[in-house]
Design brief:
Blueprint (H helix, E strand, L loop, with lengths): L9 H4 L15 E5 L8 H14 L4 E5 L5 H4 L3 E3 L4 H5 L5 H4 L1 E2 L5 E4 L5 H7 L9 H6 L8 E5 L6 H9 L2 E7 L8 H14 L5 E8 L6 H14 L15 H5 L7 H4 L4 H16 L17 E2 L9
Parallel strand pairs: 1-6, 1-7, 2-5, 2-6, 7-8
Antiparallel strand pairs: 3-9, 4-5
Helix pairs in contact: 2-13
């Protein structure tokens, strides 16, 4: 294990044309999707925002930093040959561990249960807060957006995400208890900005599981928008509705765009991506060519029913 020596040689990161990135292309905007409270739609947001950015033909990398690996399985990736843990500890080049998806502009850097051990192992590593930043350095010129799905905690892995990111996106369930942990999260972001990442920005808060038929849901939305404002670094104008199709999609190994593009959930995440792109325009381009690594087990496509 070689913590602190993460990152591949430039030769490993070249695309099929031998280039490490388009000349003059801006470095990727890395967005950490963070909320220490579970069940708020964090992984759903990371998966479907990344898919929606890719559908807009922006080269996107989804990084699964959660040992539960739900963002990984959401794309039908069951047993990756290499995972983020291998990249962090220097056992694999980033390119070797990254997996293409059905969306041509989206790649996934998968997670696995080994990542849980990183919380303990990182404690004794020099520059432990910067290991993810080091691991992702080679990806910055190759992608337009890097979306990081964080674990539901404020531990060492999340600290690495905040140190590596340009901005933080906070999914917030429109229920009363979801507000209680928000102050602590915002305090953590300020501490990271002061100690490790002074350029860290607040991308905004996105309201999830919104049901405007319920009085409480409307009251929480009004309170959050009233306190943080709408647009800019406040609350995104787009909110994500409570939608059964969003809940079903992961069990089929697909983001909502590939499962049911006409659903309210798909429409909402496409709108969220458009709102983000309006703030941070990027020209359309493809990510580098990647084969699916050998020995990676993928979910088999479901039968269509056609004879």
């Amino acid at each position: 294990m070689r913590w602190g020596e993460s990152g591949a040689d430039a030769e490993e990161q070249m695309d099929e044309s031998g280039q490490t990135g388009q000349p003059g292309a801006a470095a990727a905007r890395a967005i950490a999707v963070v909320n220490q409270k579970g069940g708020v739609g964090k992984t759903t947001t990371a998966v479907n925002l990344a898919a929606s950015l890719a559908a807009s033909e922006r080269a996107t990398l989804l990084v699964d930093l959660d040992p539960q690996a739900n963002a990984t399985s959401a794309f039908g990736i069951l047993e990756p040959a290499f995972q983020l843990y291998d990249v962090l500890c220097g056992e694999s080049a980033l390119r070797r561990a990254t997996i293409p998806t059905e969306l041509t502009h989206l790649h996934v850097l998968p997670a696995g249960p080994d990542l849980a051990g990183a919380e303990i192992e990182l404690v004794t590593v020099d520059d432990r807060e910067y290991q993810l930043r080091l691991a992702l350095a080679d990806a910055l010129p190759l992608y337009d957006f890097i979306v990081i799905d964080c674990p539901p905690s404020l531990g060492m892995l999340t600290l690495n995400a905040l140190s590596a990111a340009n901005a933080v996106l906070v999914p917030l369930q429109s229920e009363y208890y979801a507000l209680e942990g928000l102050a602590r999260l915002l305090d953590t972001i300020e501490r990271v900005r002061g100690a490790w990442n002074p350029s860290l920005e607040m991308e905004g808060i996105v309201l999830t599981m919104v049901d405007r038929r319920a009085n409480l849901s409307r009251q929480v939305e009004d309170e959050v928008r009233g306190h943080f404002g709408t647009g800019g670094a406040g609350v995104f104008r787009t909110s994500i509705p409570r939608n059964i199709r969003l809940s079903e999609a992961p069990s089929h190994g697909k983001p909502i765009l590939l499962y049911d593009i006409r659903s309210r959930g798909a429409v909402a995440y496409l709108a969220l991506a458009e709102e983000l792109l309006a703030k941070h325009p990027r020209p359309q381009r493809k990510p580098p060519f990647l084969p699916i690594p050998a020995d990676t087990e993928m979910r088999q496509p479901e039968p269509t029913g056609d004879s």
